[in-house]
Amino acid sequence: MNFLDWNKTAIAFVLSFATLGGCWYVGQTLVAAKPPPTPAIPLNKESEPDKAKGDSLKALITQANAQNGQHMAQMLCSVCHTFTKDAANTLGPNLYNIVNRPIASSNGYSYTPALHAKQKESWTLENLWEWLTAPQKFAQGTKMAFPGISDKQQLADMLAYLQTLSDSPPKNAEKK
Ligand code: HEC
Predict the structure, then answer these.
(1) SS3 for 131-173, per residue?
(2) Is residue 92 in a domain?
(3) Which of 80, 89, 149 to mutate to test the pocket of ligand 1 (most atoms within 8 A of CB)?
(4) How far is ligand 1, taken at its centre, from the CA of residue 46, in Å?
(5) Ligand 1 within 6 A of CB of 165
(6) Which amino acid residue places its CA nearest to atom 17 of ligand 1?
(7) From the CB of 77, is ligand 1 less than 6 Å away?
(8) Both 32 and 55 in a single domain?
(9) N or C: lower Cβ tally within 10 Å for the chain?
(10) Ligand 1 close to Cβ of residue 146 (< 6 A)
């Protein structure tokens, strides 16, 4: 190829890119990539899946093995927590009566601001589930140095056990 041919090739390249760019611009202008104002598939209202989640969680826990949960608690939690009535707070707060107790409310325990900020909420089964799945995700900055439990059955067993730590445990939560 001589110099002129190279030049033509270069011009051809430039022109084709310019054309491509032009097409893209026109395409973008004509069909803007905006999401439609209403989704094509109606999304459920927020409360419905939450309720469904709560119900299925209860069902899961009803069938769980509290004894296995107790065993796990001894292995995983007892380094930092006590579980019996009126036992002292240790590295972590005492966990007697934890289910439905207001968050960060064990007398005399000094909580992090991360957990303190959630004081208006209670330890519902859902909150406990989220907390024990990933403490740092539930309350970023918490000092509970525990990575979380990812196995659903183990979590259910653990919550079934925590439910027994009460003067009046729900019927289905009595130790099996
Ligand atoms: C390494 C120590 C450690 C381990 C292990 C640990 N925790 Fe904790 N836990 C803490 C500390 C510290 C706090 C207080 C966190 C804060 O103030 O941010 C806490 C807080 C909690 C709370 C909130 C209590 C309240 O009064 O609001 C619950 C519930 C809890 N832990 C459950 C568990 C369970 C169940 C396990 C075992 C699966 C576990 N923890 C394992 C140290 C630990």
Answers:
(1) HHHCHHHHCCCCCCCCCCCCCHHHHHHHHHHHHHCCCCCCHHH
(2) yes
(3) 80
(4) 29
(5) no
(6) 111
(7) yes
(8) no
(9) N
(10) yes
Place of tokens 């579980």: 83
Distances from the Cα of 26 to the Cαs of 15, 16, 31, 32, 34, in angstroms? 16, 15, 8, 10, 15
Best residue for ligand 1 mutational test, from 94, 97, 146 (most atoms within 8 Å of Cβ): 146
Per-residue pLDDT of the chain (176 residues; tens, 9 = 90+): 666 676 777 667 666 766 666 656 666 666 666 655 665 665 555 455 566 677 789 899 999 999 999 999 999 999 999 999 999 999 999 999 999 999 999 999 999 999 999 999 999 999 999 999 999 999 999 999 999 999 999 999 999 999 999 998 877 655 44
Do 5 and 64 share a domain, yes or no? no
User: What does residue 137 show for φ and ψ, rounded to 5 degrees?
Assistant: -80, -35
Residue 172 Cα to ligand 1 middle (Å): 25
Spatial separation of the C-alpha atoms in residues 51 and 41, rounded to whole Å = 21
What range defines the domain where residue 1 resides?
Answer: 1-37
Tell me, using a 6 A CB cutoff, whether residue 111 lines ligand 1: yes
